[in-house]
Specification:
Layout (H helix, E strand, L loop, with lengths): L1 H6 L5 H13 L8 H25 L1 H7 L12 H22 L1 H19 L7 H16 L15 H18 L9 H22 L3 H4 L10 H24 L3 H27 L4 H8 L2 H7 L7
Helix pairs in contact: 2-3, 2-7, 2-12, 3-5, 3-6, 5-6, 6-7, 7-8, 8-9, 8-12, 9-11, 11-12, 12-13
Length: about 300
């Protein structure tokens, strides 16, 4: 069991679940219908984990050189069995999405295609980070896919703005992690950090109620924007502090922990979105999302996130 959990980097799946919760709550008044939310969580988890599996399936040659202890190159799991495992996860994700709603299946199918394109082709091109960012955006939109009566309900504001900004953020994180297993170069790390902060600043435009001043039609949240902006600042400072340390010493021992912080911050950001929209009434929802940090942090002690 443990080799398969390592293969799919299981602790990272909780960031995907946080996306679904945020996407759902940014387009719904509450957690109803809970059955739809449960199915969307299942769809996202399966699709996300399948992407992690196929990542290793396509990267066997590179991992043999750089990460010989990964489950496939070490011989713990055959490439064939890993492929079957990934295919079953992806099929399960699409089945969960179909059970939720036909609109969910449409979004999930787009996400599955994006995952396969990234893992199989785009990862090794300059467009790789963009595709990974698109996967994150689509995952948030998947959480909103049952909103309204038409597919367009999943693309309403502020969800669409948040999804794009999170996509930019994850594109930067992906670029930052591109050569995490080797000694890296400072310039690519600095440029990727710029992309990461572009996504974070985009989020601050909504969270800090700057959208009105900039003429951007985004509905404001109920919570005090200054307080929420303070939460955002803590997240941004934490991310940048770790990232700058990695830029100063661009070695795997510095880069990999900083990537872990960037990924776990996705959970905190999603909780912040929920709190901003609902105010004090959303605290139970936000805390519920934050609790996803516990299994993610606990499991990463035995199962690496990168």
């Amino acid at each position: 069991m443990l080799p398969y959990l390592r293969l799919c980097r299981f602790p990272t799946v909780f960031t995907a679940l946080a996306d679904i919760a945020a996407g759902f709550l940014l387009t719904h008044a509450a957690l109803n219908p809970a059955s739809e939310l449960g199915l969307l969580l299942g769809a996202s988890a399966c699709l996300y984990l399948s992407g992690m599996v196929f990542n290793d399936v396509f990267d066997v040659k590179q991992d043999t050189e750089e990460r010989p202890n990964r489950p496939i190159p070490s011989g713990e799991i055959s490439r064939r069995n890993a492929t079957i495992f990934g295919a079953c996860l992806m099929a399960g994700g699409l089945a969960f999405a179909y059970a939720a709603d036909l609109r969910s299946l449409i979004i999930a199918s787009g996400l599955a295609i994006c995952i396969l394109l990234y893992d199989g082709v785009m990862k090794r091109t300059p467009l790789g980070p963009l595709f990974m960012g698109a996967c994150r955006s689509l995952n948030l939109i998947l959480g909103a896919s049952t909103a309204g009566i038409r597919l367009a309900g999943a693309f309403q504001q502020p969800l669409l703005w948040v999804a794009v900004c999170m996509g930019i953020y994850i594109a930067g994180v992906t670029w930052f992690a591109k050569r995490e297993a080797k000694q890296n170069l400072r310039l690519p790390l600095l440029l990727s950090l710029l992309v990461i902060n572009t996504g974070l600043i985009g989020l601050a435009i909504w969270l800090g109620d700057f959208a009105v001043q900039l003429g951007i039609p985004l509905p404001p949240g109920i919570a005090n924007s200054q307080a929420v902006l303070g939460i955002w600042a803590v997240i941004a400072i934490t991310i940048n502090r770790r990232a700058i340390a990695a830029v100063i010493d661009p070695s795997p021992k510095k880069i990999q922990p900083s990537i872990g912080v960037m990924l776990l911050s996705v959970i905190v950001l999603n909780a912040t979105f929920i709190y901003f929209k609902f105010g004090n009434a959303g605290i139970p929802f936000a805390v519920g999302v934050l609790l996803l940090l516990l299994p993610a942090i606990g499991l990463r002690r035995v199962i690496p996130m990168t």
